[in-house]
Amino acid sequence: MSDERLFTFRNRWFATSVLGMIGIAVVSALIGFVWLPSVHRDEPFTGVWNAICSAAGVPRSWYAGEGGKTVEPTVTLTGVEVTPQLLVNVNASAVGRGATLALRCTMCHGERGMSEANSPNLAGQYASVIYKQLIDFQKGARNNAVMSPMAVNLSDQDMRDLAAYYASLPRPPAQRKVSASLAPSIVSHGAPMRNIAPCATCHGGIDSKAGSPWLDGLPAAYTKAQLTAFANGTRTNDINEVMRNVARNMTPDEIEAAAAYHARELDGH
Ligand code: HEC
Ligand code: HEC
User: Fold this and answer.
1) Which ligand has the minimum distance to the alpha carbon of residue 124?
2) Confidence check: pLDDT of 260 > 70
3) Sign for the pseudo-dihedral over CA of 159, 165, 168, 173
4) 266 ligand 1 Cβ < 6 A
5) Looking at ligand 2, which residue's alpha carbon is closest to its atom 8?
């Protein structure tokens, strides 16, 4: 065995491996922190320093520079916080007052909250859903040429009372009961590979997530229009994009099938 020292830069092998390691580390850092992030054309990735910060996971506000500039959403988002406790304690006078206010709504939503004009049914809809949607129309988080003007002048109490009234009405009768086995696969199973949970995990009668509307009996044209609007980003009032993430990943055929199923239009086919 030679008595030459191993860990010294005079040892050619040692020097080569150390320099080689340093070289690999530098090249990987350049690829990971500079080259890959620079391929993105978003605002946080412009400039080498920003790219490095974002690759390193530094929160945006740290390097946002002048005035802590953050990326502002281009649309109005909902400001409503929906909790399971929202509007659970309603009294008879709220329902009565809501019934009077609802005289303005019958033209489109039907005399007892059942629409015959492809407007959504409101009878038996969760009070928290009606309340949230009215606020969203009023504040511009949800836009519709006929509904937005209807909501502008409602007071908070008006909206609470209207919600209480409509929630107290009986839901559409399940006159043509569609058996669960007829549910299209997108409704009953969702699409796990596309991150779509079965609709009933949020919209179901038993398993209902606060803020998810009751869908059964909604006119197919309405359901289809809403799913399409979520998918193409014209409806953006869903909290945390829950529905946009579902609808974006649905195919047009699945949207059609889900709309028909919830409208109970599948019987006899
Ligand atoms: C001129 C027709 C018209 C009138 C009057 C009207 N609405 Fe609407 N409403 C609609 C339409 C159409 C929609 C669906 C909007 C869309 O496609 O985004 C809607 C949607 C809604 C929704 C959302 C339902 C859901 O499932 O998301 C609520 C809540 C609502 N209306 C409540 C009311 C109330 C309360 C009144 C009376 C103060 C009223 N509307 C008056 C046509 C009308
Ligand atoms: C993770 C929970 C979740 C899942 C899964 C889900 N939804 Fe939703 N959906 C919501 C929420 C929450 C809203 C209410 C959004 C808002 O605040 O306006 C909504 C709204 C909707 C609306 C608009 C209804 C109206 O009256 O405004 C339709 C239609 C709808 N969902 C259909 C579906 C269908 C069909 C599926 C299954 C393919 C599905 N959703 C799966 C949570 C969910």
Assistant:
1) 1
2) yes
3) negative
4) no
5) 243
